[in-house]
Amino acid sequence: MSGRAASLLVGATGLVLCAVGLVFDPGAVLRGWLAAFAFWIGLPLGALMLLLAHDLTGGRWGRAAREPLRATAATMPLLAVCLLPILFALPQLYPWARPEEAANLKNLFYLNAPFFVGRALVFVGLWSLLSLVAAWRAAAVPAPVAVTGLILLALTATLAAFDWTMSLEPDWGSSIYGMMVISGHLLAALALATLVAVVAGPAGEGERMDLGSLLIAGLLLWFYLSFMQFLIIWEEDLPKEITWYVARLAGGWGWVAVLGALGQGALPFFALIWWPVKRSRVGLGTVCALLLASHLLECWWLVLPGTPGGWTWFAPAATLAIGGFWAALFLGRLEVARRQSAVEAADAAGLLGEARHG
Amino acid sequence: MSRVLVVFDSPDRMLDALRRLREAGFARLEVYSPQAVEGVDELLGRRSRALPLVIIAAGVAGAVGGFLLQYIGMAVHYPLNIGGRPLNSWPAFSTSTFELAALAMLLVGTLAFFALCRLPRLYDPVFEVPGMERATQDRFLIGVDLREASIDRERLERVLARFDGVRIEEVPE
């Protein structure tokens, strides 16, 4: 069985599990779906940012990472479809969409169903357009498009993080939150691209060193932003703000937070500053797999403790459902990206040959 | 014991001669060159493994010391209840702990680098050799210690016979 067929089978199984669950416990399925969506949307979003940044600046790391990044960014339209169930179930997920709980909220001018749905459609519409321009076509995008796209991505991804996950607790707010979530997206997308480049790509030792160094930069950024939010809120210790961390550090979630800080912070950092790990295929691939697994845990940790009911087994089920279809599309696009760059390389060689003869 | 300097005008010839001198059994060698020449460190056996370890040790010492400095001050000697937070406020200590670790690594690393390079050193007898100053411009020099002067001198000349136009200069005692 090919990789794509297996992925589709996994996706279909997850989807059936979620559909069955919808009959018995729709709330659990929906919050699990949101937790899974928070993970998967980060991959194409982060890949799109990295791709546009590479179009602007270039660099040797792109030689190995561009194809997987393009295939990742090309999955954006699929994630846009996966957002729809959330938009149809706002009252089940978000307290501000339930009139009895929203009565004493002061930010309803921003958090209300029509505006929320409108914003969400603008975000995924814009991102899908950028994905079609930058990832479905083979050519690099011109600089003005890349610059505009990056600015728009930074703004819309910040607002999307505020909307989709931060507003689960509508009393709570943190201005660093959007940046923190975006840094997680970037790190996950880079880890995935590096993993694919190392396992199945042409990443030489130089490219591996560059990607390893970029991963260090990404995880330092993520760790810094996450820790600063924690440090400021912990220092203030105000009832309105600390509740977010109380829910996320009590009981089992506290251990998830420790695992996340280790798996997405300390462990890969100390592994990557040691040269032999950065140089070796196995070492770098293991670090990337650890980063991705920890990022998945982080996304569940950001969403689930903030919802009434907390942990649900529908989170892994929904992660498999979206992930299966996502992987099938990703593998298909990866093949296309490989073919396109092979054609380009052949063209370049042909042109060189003609120039030499002519 | 006496020292001589062998003067070359290209890095490749110098490297070749250095390899042959090593093979001939000359152990106490030194290279003076206007730029870093790839391969010299390996031939001289000077790839230092000590510096990274020294810097890691300094970082650990700085982190432990930085944390203890705050812990002993805040929790042992001057315990103050600040807003109900625990005396051992490790999240608040963490930034200073990190800064002190970085400071220790930089300071100790810089000093250890100087010590390993045997710097600062204001005088060396090789400065008296005529033409030595061109080691900072366009000449590549190998310093050789001759233990039993006459025998070693003969061996040295035999090794260098294949390189024409090479000058051998005595370093004054």
TrEMBL record, chain A:
<feature type="transmembrane region" description="Helical">
    <location>
        <begin position="253"/>
        <end position="275"/>
    </location>
</feature>
<protein>
    <recommendedName>
        <fullName>Quinol:cytochrome c oxidoreductase quinone-binding subunit 2</fullName>
    </recommendedName>
</protein>
<feature type="transmembrane region" description="Helical">
    <location>
        <begin position="114"/>
        <end position="136"/>
    </location>
</feature>
<keyword id="KW-0812">Transmembrane</keyword>
<feature type="transmembrane region" description="Helical">
    <location>
        <begin position="211"/>
        <end position="233"/>
    </location>
</feature>
<feature type="transmembrane region" description="Helical">
    <location>
        <begin position="74"/>
        <end position="94"/>
    </location>
</feature>
<feature type="transmembrane region" description="Helical">
    <location>
        <begin position="34"/>
        <end position="53"/>
    </location>
</feature>
<feature type="transmembrane region" description="Helical">
    <location>
        <begin position="143"/>
        <end position="164"/>
    </location>
</feature>
<feature type="transmembrane region" description="Helical">
    <location>
        <begin position="282"/>
        <end position="304"/>
    </location>
</feature>
<feature type="transmembrane region" description="Helical">
    <location>
        <begin position="176"/>
        <end position="199"/>
    </location>
</feature>
<keyword id="KW-1133">Transmembrane helix</keyword>
<keyword id="KW-0472">Membrane</keyword>
<feature type="transmembrane region" description="Helical">
    <location>
        <begin position="310"/>
        <end position="331"/>
    </location>
</feature>
UniProtKB/TrEMBL annotation, chain B:
<dbReference type="Pfam" id="PF11821">
    <property type="entry name" value="ActD"/>
</dbReference>
<keyword id="KW-0812">Transmembrane</keyword>
<protein>
    <recommendedName>
        <fullName>Quinol:cytochrome c oxidoreductase membrane protein</fullName>
    </recommendedName>
</protein>
<keyword id="KW-0472">Membrane</keyword>
<feature type="transmembrane region" description="Helical">
    <location>
        <begin position="50"/>
        <end position="72"/>
    </location>
</feature>
<keyword id="KW-1133">Transmembrane helix</keyword>
<feature type="transmembrane region" description="Helical">
    <location>
        <begin position="92"/>
        <end position="116"/>
    </location>
</feature>
<dbReference type="InterPro" id="IPR021776">
    <property type="entry name" value="ActD"/>
</dbReference>
